[in-house]
């Protein structure tokens, strides 16, 4: 991934926290028939050997799971992003030498993808994913709320994906190359730009 020097983010704890917060990836795998790309919610887990594994599942009808064992793949996590207006820069009122850009957070996970059909693995994946996203609700739904036969029939229609991460790289494009006044203008502009802008402003403050 192209990353200007000031946008490089390689701290493992920061990258892992962002992966867990985003929780949704585009998994890309080259195959002899062409490139397969699938959008999936993920759960980040620590493997027995201490490595990082991303667990997901897809519909059995999705040909992506039929990749060869341990296929080289890329998982892309797109964080908050927003347009940045030149109006945010004090420099605009001075020299006028400013242009718009796009600010964003993105993480690329490089690794290998393996299909999983083990029923216990799939059950854990579905339960973990559901519990994570139901946790903040006043009356959370649980997999056990549905009839067991119905859950069994639904699970026959999915296949697990286990993505073993070999390398992570993050890009935090937050205009950090600008002078102090324009960087402050960026921060104020982001804070007024809605939810994505607020998240980017927070990330900028944490850098």
UniProtKB/TrEMBL annotation:
Coiled coil: none annotated. It comes from the Bacteria. Pfam families: FMN_bind_2 (PF04299). This is Transcriptional regulator. It comes from Mesorhizobium temperatum. The lineage of its organism: Bacteria, Pseudomonadati, Pseudomonadota, Alphaproteobacteria, Hyphomicrobiales.
